Amino acid sequence: MHEIVILGGGPAGTITANHLADELSSEIQHGTVGVTLLTDKPDQLYKPGLLYLALGRAREEILRRPVRELVSPRIQVLVETVSAVDSAGRTVVTQTGRSIHFDQLIVATGTRLDPAATPGLREAGDLFYDEDGARKLNAKLASFREGRIVVSVIGVPHMCPVAPLEIVFMLDAWLRQHGVRDASRLTYTYPINRSHSIPSVAAWATPELEARGIEVETFFNAESVDPDRKVLTSMEGTELPFDLLIAIPEHRSAAFLEASGLTKHGWVPTDRETLAVKGFDGIWALGDTTDLPTSKAGSVAHYQAATVAKNVVAFAHGNDPVARYDGKTICFIEAGLDRATFLEFDYARAPAPKPPTKLVHWAKLAYNRAYWLTARGAL
Amino acid sequence: MPELTVSQEIDARGSACPGPLMELIRAIKSSDVGDVVAVLSSDPGSNKDIPEWIAKIGYELLGNEELGGYQRFTVRKSK
Q: Is B10 near chain A, with CB under 8 Å?
């Protein structure tokens, strides 16, 4: 039997699994191919929803679904934590001591947050990139009456490149709604010399930020936090005092990948078109864990999944991988609490944001619910 | 002049997001002081962005080569 093992139960893992279940249905049925998905958590978390959770606009239970309900019954799902990959021995080892053979491996393990990489951040900073952080931030905002809020993009690269802009726009609207905007200062920091890495997004966002009285600190690569003085300091030497620090922390790929020699400089070296892991035959990577110069965003994983599945099927049949990922990405951007816009781009085409509308905001809210159809491979 | 040893070269051609400068910052962050990092960029804006950031942070821009449709920037993390 040709064994295909998928590591990860996020969007990249489940969407790929469902493509494979379709494309290899007869082989799986006849027992000539097996597909196993390993996930360390029984539920998948819809991470774009954390933004809404932090601002008290989403219930936690709508952000989670059991992985077993999201993938085809033709896929074997194991809820176990991987401890190592032996790429030469074609084996994955789990923390329970189980050893799983693979002919092909798909690495879809996403990223992990590493706030400890920034001294003082864990003691003095808040974040909204995981459930616990979003919940705590929501509680702090509930009692926020006055002071300076700093939203700082520290991790490069980080998940969802537009989320820091979204939270700052949503916070501005939220503070106004709660009648405390006049008593607060809102500052946004970004590592490069404009408000976003995409020039057209920066050109749209900068006047929007100015119009709302949001201060912008550019060329600000946060290096450390002084929890006693409540000051954030950058590599460039700027100091920013804060009352509430909302940080986008450093991100890394899964620790076991680093220990198994599958990463270079923190990420999995991946061919930008075929999505093969460089230097390893029959090992593929997609989603946030790759070193590709793409956004770490769900839509990227969604489009990459189709490419990986086609190439895995070709490999299983002894053919060359011919499917190519073209860099396609789509991102919604919330521009407050009732307006949004979106971006669409690929390796060859730069994005061009349109003015935000209520209609796109409602489309985003609808997609937040409809996402589970994407995870299931239906949308 | 002795040949430079580049510890990391990033191919950021066609990178709309996060973009070549962000890719360079990522590589610099994971480098040691003294390391040399190279980044390939097809974004014309990099000619301004990358030297500006290097000047601001006080690192050393060792090279900026035009290689036919793209640039190769070489940077030393000097502190």
A: yes
* Domain A2-111+253-316, CATH: 3.50.50.60
pLDDT tens per residue across span A270-304: 999 999 999 999 999 999 999 998 899 999 999 99
More confident residue, B59 or B15: B59
The contacts of residue A349 (CB under 8 Å, 6+ apart) are: B16
> Are residues B17 and A351, on separate chains, in Cβ contact within 8 Å?
yes
Which residue, chain included where needed, has tokens 């770490």?
A: A296
Regions of chain A with pLDDT less than 50: none
Torsion of CA A241, A222, B12, A287, to 10 degrees: -100
B23 catalytic? Reply is no
ipTM, two decimals, is: 0.80
Residues from chain A contacting residue B30 (CB–CB below 8 Å):
265-266
Predicted TM-score (pTM) of the model is: 0.91
Cβ atoms of A13 and A7 closer than 8 Å: yes
Is B1 a domain residue?
A: no
**pLDDT for B16:** 66
- The CATH code that applies to domain A114-250 is 3.50.50.60
Q: C-alpha angle with apex B24: A256 to B79, nearest 5 degrees?
A: 95
